[in-house]
Amino acid sequence: MPNIFRYANPREFMRLSAALLPYTAAASVVAIAVGLFMSLTAPPDYQQGMTVTIMFIHVPAAIMAESVYGLIAVTSLFSLVWRHPLSDVAARAAAPFGALFTALGLITGSLWGRPMWGAYWVWDARLTSFLILLFLYLGYMALWNAIEDEIRAARAAAILALIGAVNLPIIVYSVEWWNTLHQGESIISGKLAPVFLWPLLVMWAGYGFLFLTLWMLRIRTEILNRRARTLMQEGA
Amino acid sequence: MSAFNALLMRDLRLAARSGGGAALALGFFALVATLVPLGIGADLKLLARVAGGVLWVGAVLAALLSLDRLFQGDFEDGSLDVIALSPLSLESVSLAKILAHWLSTGLPLTLISPLLALLFNLPAAATLVLFVSLLIGTPAVSAVGAIGASLTLSLKRGGLILPLIILPLLTPAVVFGAGAVAAMLDGRPPSEGLTLLAAFAIAACLLSPFAAAASVRLNLSS
Questions:
Q1: Distance between CA A219 and CA A92 in Å, rounded?
Q2: What DSSP designation does B42 have?
Q3: pLDDT tens per residue across span B159-195
Q4: Does A169 reach chain B within 8 Å, measured CB to CB?
């Protein structure tokens, strides 16, 4: 196995991430705590009642789920074009969190849908495209786990991530087209009052910092694992 | 071009002689079409309503059956290395394999679909739309499937992971294809679904040879 550390500079990343980690961890704890407090003390919505609280958990999770897929696509592009091993590690480390955010979005969405729409699952365009997004994440992670050779697995997963990123807008469009074909489901839209907007933004920041913290931790773990493996091979 | 034709003919011959070619996929397709009425009941109105969706999903699943062997057999016995050394680019190789897969599964599935639509009591006009939509859409199934097949070609159990990768990407084909049939049943013009399906199929057939070639390349270079 070639020594991949010749091509990248993970040492720099280790130094930077070690310095940043305490701050991002603290920021995520504070933002989520404040955000939860603001969410729980927010007044009930005149239409949705207390169920509006779910939105503060749900919407940031949905935004994160989409952003993380975009992040994986960008890091995959880096990995394919510049063959930067750190971006492979970064893409792989981000995937489970993206899948978790997607699942959190789907679960909270269905909990909100039960009192609002009268059913846990409605074939609404957004719900459906998020379900497909979850399957995209699962396929991506499964492909990565299935291929034993690390470099091959990274390239194959990167190709799949890019194809998924190209196809995702088409999937979303097709599902919306299908939805208007079958039934007109109104997606809640309109202006958001500041009393609802602020908890949402704070929760979003909390999720973002939480993701950043866990992402860096996972990348660090993987780098340390690879170093340990290299050391063991050299020692053997 | 002759190398392209030679590869195409070779793959078609291989498909016909090993594993019975289209027969397995057709049998699977027919069985799915038989099991669905047994599962949901024999109400002819309901069957006509779901025919487009069921037959589209059945056709996609049937086409997936033979997909995992698209590159795998050639990879295992080393012929893929020889093909890669030929003057034919890997992009053309992928295109030939996609075409061979479509001719040996997608096209036969399309041809048998009117017969199965008959079992679902689908009106003649809607059957025609189903036939046309499968004719347009099954090349996209082979093309997108080829990407999955090339990504998993080194895996011994690639057949298990392939559907997980490919099916989400094929959502638009099923939506537009079955949507066109449903539109016809509702008395709306099916042209919107069919043109969107054609756009998806053209994009898939144009782009997937490059993606498939890229992943074949990464599997050959080690």
A1: 9
A2: -
A3: 788 999 999 999 999 999 999 999 999 888 899 999 9
A4: no
Q: Where are the domains of chain B?
A: 3-220
DSSP 8-state symbol, B114: H
CA–CA dist B207, B117 (Å, integer): 32
How many residues belong to chain A? 236
Buried-state track B147-158, b at ≥16 Cβ within 10 A, e below 16: bbbbbbbbbeeb
For the CA atoms of B4, B98, B72, A95, the dihedral, rounded to the nearest 10 degrees, stands at 130
Cβ pair B168:A147 closer than 8 A: no
Full DSSP string of A144-204: HHH--SHHHHHHHHHHHHHHHHHHHHHHHHHHHHHHHHH--PPPP-SPPPHHHHHHHHHHH
Q: Name chain A contacts of B75, Cβ cutoff 8 Å.
A: none
> CB–CB of A57/A66 below 8 Å?
no
* pLDDT single digits (tens) B10-44: 888 888 887 666 788 899 999 999 999 999 988 88
Task: List the single residue in A with minimal CA-CA distance to B150.
Answer: A156
ipTM: 0.87
**CA gyration radius for chain B?**
18
User: Could you tell me the two tokens for B107?
Assistant: 């096209």
| Alpha-carbon separation of residue B215 from A14, A35, B102, B113 (angstroms) | 31, 44, 20, 33
Neighbouring residues of A186: CB distance < 8 A, sequence distance ≥ 6: none
